[in-house]
Amino acid sequence: MRFFDFEKPIAELEEKIEELRQLSSSKELNIASEINKLQAKSQKMLAKVYSSLTPWQKVQVARHEYRPQFLDYLYVVSPDFEFLAGDRLFADDHALLGGIGHFAGHAVVILGQQKGHDTDSRIKHNFGMPMPEGYRKARRLIELADKFRLPVLSFVNTSGAYPGIESEARGQSQAIASCIQACVRAKVPIISVIIGEGGSGGAVAIATANRVLMLEHSVYSVISPEGCASILWKTATANELAAVAQKLTAQDLMELGVIDKIIPEPLGGAHRDKNLTIKSVAEALAIELDALLRIESIKEDRSAKFSGFWGRA
Question: 58-312 in CATH: which number?
Answer without folding.
Answer: 3.90.226.10
